[in-house]
Amino acid sequence: MIELAKSHLKKVLELCGANRNCEYYPCHFDGQVCLWCFCPFYPCEDEELGEYIKRRDGTKIWSCVKCHWVHREEVATEILKEILSLTKNNSIDEGLQLLDDRELMLKIKDKIKAKYPNR
Question: pLDDT at position 101, please?
């Protein structure tokens, strides 16, 4: 394998697999899929997946520290499929603008969660 291909494959494996090289790994559970290190549904406000917690200053923030759902392989893959199907005919910037629609993103979450419930 040529070096450019190896370098690219390393990035893909770090992104799509269990990135044991990450200083925060595992942030949820051992063997987690790290593709959605930053959840595209945040804050989902789904109480099966997370909860509001108080910060030191008394304000509330959504915490998904107990969420394992988005890091399961089948769920992470399904999220990617949905996003790619919506954005395949757009430039990256157009795709990001489309996915900036919170209602759309929560519909994607609900569709996938119906197929792969939180367990």
Answer: 96
